[in-house]
Design a protein that fits this description.
single chain, 329 residues, alpha/beta, Rossmann fold, six-stranded parallel β-sheet, five-stranded parallel β-sheet, 11 strands, 32% helix, 15% strand
Length: 329
């Protein structure tokens, strides 16, 4: 474990995306606990600013821009801060551009490209005993995390249509890649089962999920479609749900960060990549011992073998029956 007690200024770099950024929050909290008086800053892409906007452990949150002029101004500010340590959790050309402007010690998150390649392409599993991403983030800095989970701080209130007199179940049907999405028709069938049991379905998602959320909404009797709200509003509304069903996506980590029980569908990706719900009240549904899993470490546009068994064999009845394991009533 690295002694960071003498460090006065620390910079963390993780530019994107929703899940990856939320997974940094245990590291941020641990750094603050060990260095109560330090200046702890973070660089993030502007579109994800809300994720850490209200995080009380950070001193400054800086926006990374695609515009060259704005980046130059950012680099000037960061260089003038005279950091003692920079923790690069992005580890790509963009973050290298940032660290190259600094004159401090830099540590990097190792992405294990070769081991992921071997697992995906040859099913040689050298990641079997690897820890989750938050732990690996901490290891990059030589730190040991506490026993708490993810964090998200919202200054919004829940949608006013959510009230304590109803039993809400959240659905997050979106994911960036097709092979990480549980079928739309399964979400519809599951939703009908939930309605029959007296639950009210709440639909969550971003701009990319407007269509699928609308399709599901049209098939139900009394859903609440909260798709395309801000992350702050979404998080506040999620907290009103008894449970959230979700794909392997940023919204899964958001639900975990606000301490809502989660049932997550994992298709083309596996636990070894480190993105299962972190220290959450969760159930992960996956088709184990399927010879073609994983077929990717991030997701694909289509199933390379056409059958899509990794998702299709997780049926709505299985998803519904697991509800009782996390929700009492």
């Amino acid at each position: 474990m690295t002694d960071i007690s003498g460090l006065k200024k620390i910079l963390i770099i993780r530019l994107s995306s929703i899940g990856d950024i939320l997974l940094t929050t245990p590291l941020i909290r641990t750094l603050r606990k060990q260095n109560t008086d330090a200046q702890i800053d973070f660089v993030i892409k502007g579109e994800f600013f809300e994720l850490l906007k209200n995080n009380p452990h950070l001193s400054n949150l800086y926006r990374y821009s695609k515009k060259s002029s704005e980046r130059k101004e950012l680099f000037k500010v960061l260089k003038s801060n005279d950091y003692d340590l920079a923790i690069d959790l992005q580890n790509n050309n963009r973050s290298d551009e940032i660290t190259s402007k600094l004159s401090c010690r830099v540590v990097w998150f190792k992405k294990n490209h070769l081991k992921k390649f071997l697992l995906v392409n040859f099913k040689i599993n050298l990641l079997k005993n690897y820890p989750s991403i938050p732990v690996r983030y901490a290891q990059a800095a030589g730190l040991k995390l506490d026993d708490e989970g993810l964090e998200f701080y919202s200054d919004e209130i829940a949608d006013d249509r959510l009230n304590m007199n109803e039993k809400f179940i959240g659905l997050c049907p979106g994911a960036k890649h097709f092979t990480k999405r549980w079928p739309e028709k399964y979400f519809i069938e599951l939703s009908k089962k939930l309605e029959a049991e007296g639950y009210r379905v709440v639909l969550f998602g971003g701009p990319e999920e407007i269509e699928v959320c609308s399709n599901i909404e049209r098939q139900l009797s009394n859903p609440l479609n909260l798709c395309n709200q801000s992350l702050l509003k979404t998080a506040a509304s999620m907290k009103m749900c008894k449970l959230v069903y979700t794909n392997d996506s940023g919204t899964m980590h958001l639900a975990c960060a606000v301490n809502v029980p989660v049932i997550a569908f994992f298709g083309s990706t596996v636990k070894e990549f480190g993105f299962f719900p972190y220290k959450a009240n969760s159930i992960e549904l996956e088709v184990e011992k399927l010879h073609c899993r994983p077929c990717t470490h991030i997701g694909r546009k289509h199933c390379p073998l056409i059958h899509f068994k990794c998702m299709k064999e997780i049926n709505p009845e299985l998803a519904f029956s697991n509800l009782k394991r996390l929700v009492v009533s």
